[in-house]
Each structure stands twice: as C-alpha cells, then as structure tokens.
C-alpha cells in the first residue's frame, strides 16, 4: 500500500518504472476480504462500521485541507474550480465502510425472514448506497470483490474462480481500451494504467489465511491501521508538495 501511494504521488520524482503500479493491486481486495471476515467475527457490526466511517470522514477532511493548501481544486480540463477535485485523494476507509454497509444490508435480507415492506426498504437502501460506492476509491471493483468473498466465504475454490473470472474480464477491458481507442499510449502503458486485473494476485494471500487473528490481541495492534493510514498519507502529501 505504501509503495503504491508513493508511486502515485512521487513516482515521477523518483523515476519509478510503470510496472510498480502492478505491485499493490492485491492490497484493496485483501482489505475487503478481511472486512468480510470481520463482519462475522466482530462483537459489534455497528461499531465496526462507525470506526471505518469516521475514518473515512477524517480522510475527507485531510484531503480537503491538503487540496486547499496545495491549490489542487481546479479541473485540469475546464481550468475552473471543481468540488470533486476539492475532495480528491486516497480514502480506502470510506470504501471499506460503504462496502461493509452494503454487505450488511444484503446479509440482513438473505438471513432474515422480513416483511415485504422492510424488504423493499432494504432494496431501496442498497440502490441509494450504490452511487456512493461507485464514486469512492476503487468502489466498483471492491464491491464485486466483496460480493465474491461474501457469497463464497470459506470456499477458496469458488473464491478463486470468482476472482479469476473477474480479473480476466478486467484484463479484456484493458485490451479493448488499447485496441479500441486512439492515442492511449503503448500496450505496456495501458496495462500498467488500467491495471485492476492484477487483483488476481490477492489469491495467494487468501490461500495462506488460516482463519486466526494475527498478533496477540493487544488493542494497539487492532487500531494500528486506523492511525497508520492517515499519517503515512499526510507525510506523502507533504513530500509531494515539496517536490
């Protein structure tokens, strides 16, 4: 993850090769995998969601401040202020929170015998949340991964098939982008830019998962990522502005 973020913001300065972007494509799917695992293991799904959601709101604030201070609020095409660019930046917290909420609602519909009125309300909730997932960081891809990990949980063979098929479709899409459009660069440039097909590299890590919690259960280990994620991005944002 750190390498991926360094590549995004400092890759040109460090003259990193284009293939570096491929190295981190397993990270977000692995986060999603453990979000689904956490969905079943957590003592409170509500607190689990709120931790991620609050982290997402915090990251929006950090991105907002960073873009204002660095004057990254102008659309490079229209040369005008764009509110979307005001909040641009990394925010996997919000993606994880929204995917968790979507899966939670879906699970409620599948597991429980609901009255038609509540069932309808939950379907509406799924539809309402969908656009927010689509515009979140990697949202469409991670939602598909979340569905695969949720529906096939505990069955590595089916998870492998689902992830492989999805990755092949994304690879075909990348090829279609290259062969179907003009001035998109070389095939190498296209495949290292439209590179979500490399999410297939998450499979070895899932295979090695033994279903046990890592570490010794201390609170700092549980909360480490919640602190590390924003801190390392703040440092990278500052370095990006300096260089």
UniProtKB/TrEMBL annotation:
The chain crosses the membrane at residues 16-36, 48-65, 85-104, 116-134, 163-181, 196-212, 224-242. It holds the Pfam family TraX. It comes from the Bacteria. Keywords: Membrane, Transmembrane, Transmembrane helix. InterPro entries: TraX. Coiled coil: none annotated. This is TraX protein.
